[in-house]
Amino acid sequence: MNKLLIIGAELDRTETWIKYEKTMCSSCHSSCCTMPVEVRFNDLLRIGLVQEFERSEPAKNIAKRLMKEGVVERFSQKSGIYTLVRMGNNDCLYLDRKSRLCTIYEQRPDTCRNHPKIGPRPGYCAFKPKQSS
User: Fold this and answer.
1) Residue 73 pLDDT
2) How many CB atoms neighbour CB 58 within 10 A?
3) Beta-bridge partner residues of 81
4) Cβ distance 72 to 94 under 8 Å?
5) Residue 129 resides in a domain
6) pLDDT tens figures, 91-103
7) How far apart are CA 52 and CA 133, in angstroms?
8) What is the mean predicted confidence (pLDDT) over 59-88?
9) Who contacts 123 (Cβ-Cβ below 8 Å, separation ≥6)?
């Protein structure tokens, strides 16, 4: 597939995604930051949403608190995975609207650290070029 012909991948259609290259991130509109972000307790700890002493708390209680705070939108008790809230436009809660950069980059969850090695189509990216001003 010729990458020059792709104006922008469609997030929900993984067949439109293109093979990931490191150079893509600097010219992308942060499309990966509009996908649901699944996190575990250690991610929440790194972000600063929970404290180490809470590890002994029931996960559903932590989820309930974080949902009330508007940080977590759902929790799977079976897998122990929390899903972070997204804004109305599907942007991650931690994505700066103007710069399109992560506001917690150094503390970002493992899901984000490992993208696109993991995800709906490993090794491929839903690349969308930044819009010209």
Assistant:
1) 97
2) 10
3) 76
4) no
5) no
6) 999 999 999 999 9
7) 44
8) 97
9) 19, 20, 116, 117
Give 132's pLDDT tier (boundaries 50, 70, 90): low
Question: Domain limits at 91?
Answer: 32-123
Q: What is the 3-state secondary structure (H, E, C) of the chain?
A: CCHHHCCCCCCCCHHHCEECCHHHHHHECCHHHHCCCEECHHHHHHHCCCCHHHHHCCHHHHHHHHHHCCCEEEEECCCCEEEECECCCCCECCECCCCCCECCHHHCCHHHHCCCCCCCCCCEECCCECCCC
User: In whole angstroms, how far apart are CA 100 and each of 25, 89, 114, 125, 130?
Assistant: 11, 13, 19, 16, 9
pTM, two decimals, is 0.83
Mean pLDDT of 91-118: 94
14 or 71, which is more confident? 71
Domain count, the chain: 1
Q: What is the dihedral of CA 69, 70, 73, 74, to 10 degrees?
A: 0
Q: Is residue 115 part of a domain?
A: yes
The model's confidence at residue 7, banded by pLDDT at 50, 70 and 90, is: low
Is 18 a domain residue? no
